[in-house]
Amino acid sequence: MLAKRTIIAVPFLGLLATTYFLNGAPDETKQIADGVWFREGDLKKGHCNNTIIEMKDYLIIIDANFPSGAELVIAEARKISKKPIKYVFDTHHHGDHAYGNPIWTKLGATTIGHIGVVNEMKDREPKRWLAAAMERPDVAKLNLKTAEPPQITFDKKPYEITDGKRKVEFHHLGWAHTKGDGFAWLPAEKILCTGDAVVNGAYNYTADGNIGNWPKVIEAAQKFNPTTILPGHGPYGGPEILVGQRAFLMELRKAVETAQKSGKKVEDLVTTKNGKSTATSITLPASVKNWAGDGLADQVRDTYEELKAKKPRGDLKL
Ligand SMILES: [Zn+2]
């Protein structure tokens, strides 16, 4: 997710809140396995989900969150363990996953991300950082000119951390939600932290994405054969979250492509008010309704533009 549309979505969150009955609730930390905790972020604060992993001598945190989210996760981690927080993994460059980086590095942690996170920040910052600082006191308070990129990067070869007992692998499986999407994989526990390449609910943000390639990235993630999915937003669950997210993206693309081929213009599919997409005539099957919500009009527009330009949406300067 990206802060801007999260803020737009706030009036509808009262409705979404009713779906939070499975596997935790916002601002709740749950133990998933021995030494692994999942904390569901509160979308009203714009926060992402986080995972806390306890190694022999230190902790690893999945996602830096916004600065205010980072503070909450630090407080939670301190309740769990007195071990130092040594590594923080940015699953991608979006503010709700990476703008907390300076909070963690100030604590002495080292930030990690795919090289695409650094490249996305080079392309898109400081514009988004400055916009976020206008809207969010926690970002403004850091008094910085731009986002802080991850300190350790990896490219094609996965990055691994092990203490001899537990192993955590960081993988890039291609461009889905952003060019720098990273997954954290715990092979022994079969737990997969997906960032926003996989969300559990109507939280997809497609404007930086490669909608055509996205399902292939999820297929690659399915090959790990995970039993627990810790998504970027929404409650955790099993591999059915991968199945549903992949089906949603494929149904979205299919519906928009069919409409486009029948001669429909984007204006025929998406209603716009004051420059914002407010409604869409596209409907998706009931099987993917968990993922189809208030953001659908934006997602339809993004998919239409990607198909029209024959280039990933994230590469279009619209
Ligand atoms: Zn995101």
Walk me through the structure.
With 318 residues, this protein is an alpha/beta fold. The chain has one domain: 4-Layer Sandwich (Metallo-beta-lactamase, Chain A), CATH 3.60.15.10. The protein is built from 12 helices and 14 strands. Strands 1-2-3-4-5-6-7 form a 7-stranded mixed sheet. A 5-stranded mixed sheet has the order 8-9-10-11-12, with no helix packed on it. The longest helix is centred in the C-terminal third of the chain and has 22 residues, at 240-261. The model is unreliable at 6-21 (pLDDT under 50). Residues 1-2, 92, 94, 97, 177, 196, 205 line the site of zinc ion.
Bound molecules: zinc ion
Give the termini distance in whole angstroms.
Answer: 18 Å
Tell me the domain tally: 1
Instruction: Report the helical percentage.
Output: 25-40%
Report strand %: 15-25%
| CATH fold descriptor | Metallo-beta-lactamase, Chain A
**How big is the Rg?**
19 Å
CATH superfamily: Ribonuclease Z/Hydroxyacylglutathione hydrolase-like
CATH-derived architecture: 4-Layer Sandwich
Main β-sheet, in a few words?
7 strands, mixed
Secondary-structure content class: alpha/beta
CATH class membership: Alpha Beta
Silhouette: globular
Return the average pLDDT rounded to an integer.
93
Total number of helices: 12
* Spatial order of strands in the largest sheet: 1-2-3-4-5-6-7
Order of helices and strands: HHEEEEHEHHEHHHEEEEEHEHHEEH
Beta strand count? 14
Describe the structure concisely.
The chain has 318 residues and is α/β, with parallel strands linked by helices. 34% of the residues lie in helices and 19% in strands.
